[in-house]
Specification:
The protein has about 100 residues and is mainly α. It has one domain. Helices cover about 75% and strands about 0% of the residues. It has 3 helices and no strands. The protein is elongated and about 45 Å long. The termini are far apart.
Length: about 100
């Protein structure tokens, strides 16, 4: 296997793990009724989203704004979705949110 393939697979696994963590935290947040637990989950969700955003920004070329042309590769689509999801979570549950 080519070294670049291993690096891409590793990056995809890290992104997948970060997304799974966020999905779990978000599900727990939706099901909780305790205000204290809700605040802790929101804070943890915000930190997880920031980690995901960092991972998404660090994987491969195309850092920064999205290009005008749609990305075609599976990796690029996953990265774009991760960036968009992390931005939404940070905006919704970030430090400056309610």
């Amino acid at each position: 296997m080519v070294h670049g393939d291993v690096q891409r697979r590793d990056a995809n696994l890290r992104l997948g793990a970060a997304v799974s963590e966020i999905e779990g935290l978000y599900t727990a947040l939706l099901k909780t009724t305790s205000p204290g637990r809700r605040r802790r989950l929101q804070a943890e969700l915000s930190r997880a989203a920031e980690r995901l955003a960092g991972l998404a920004a660090a994987t491969g070329p195309g850092r920064g704004a999205l290009p005008a042309a749609p990305r075609r590769s599976r990796r690029a689509r996953r990265k774009a979705l991760a960036e968009r999801g992390a931005a939404w979570i940070i905006a919704r549950y970030g430090r400056n949110a309610r």
